[in-house]
Amino acid sequence: MPLPVPVTMDPGSPRQGGLLATARALPAGWERGIAWADDSCTLPTVMGECPTQDDLKPAQPLTDEVFRPVELIQTIACTTFGGGPAGLAGPALDQTRDYALAREMLTGEASARDAAVPENANPALVDTAVDLGEFVFLAQAVACLEQRLAAATGGRGGYLLAGLDMATHLLANRLVWRDGARWRTAGGSTVIVSAGFDGRAPGDTAPPPAGQALTLYAVPNVWAGVGSRSALFDVNRADNTATDRAEDIALVAFSTCAVFAASSPEATSCGTDESP
Question: How many other C-beta atoms are found inside a 10 Å radius of the C-beta of residue 104?
Fold first, then answer.
């Protein structure tokens, strides 16, 4: 029997939508990190015909936000006898970087682990969210998230962040509708769907076990982007192995002044290898 011929398989296109396709664009120069005074939670005031000085609304402070970039990396190694992995890491990173960046937004694990000093770690959803609790029906959870977000932002609204499983439950309950390439709620919030949002609750370090409620998050604003790529291909002649590495600089940022979380037993986890 002849030996199989080494080939390169078509990896297909990256998943449509997701965090990188739906979030707002980052400003120029974000690769060094970004800092800004966020006005997402400033509220208006309404005055009557003849207000007095004592009745005027006091000035509102802005929220100081700081986010630093992370590196998204794919490394593939195999024997050189089959042709080696040259050129495989880049397409693999294209397929998986949305998942990686969404997971980092949720947990902040890489930023916290690799920060030069602890206070340089990026904010994470699980650390900043106010947990509104578990609701009997998923519609109640969505309604409460949107109303709390609108009340905190003066009606601006924002984004809901859902994993693939949560997105399926939202659609099955007719709580989202398709607006071109985006999902939206009845209240007009944009729903960002990414597998990196695994349904873990605020304060948790792992996704929920099978059968437990998934958590849905809401934020006023989300920005995300991927920058320049570096690549490295190396061959170790001592054992005839080759390593292909692709690395993207990336950043995801969100307004931390009003982050909410809610869950419902109508949307439950099927469990993962990471679940307790």
Answer: 22
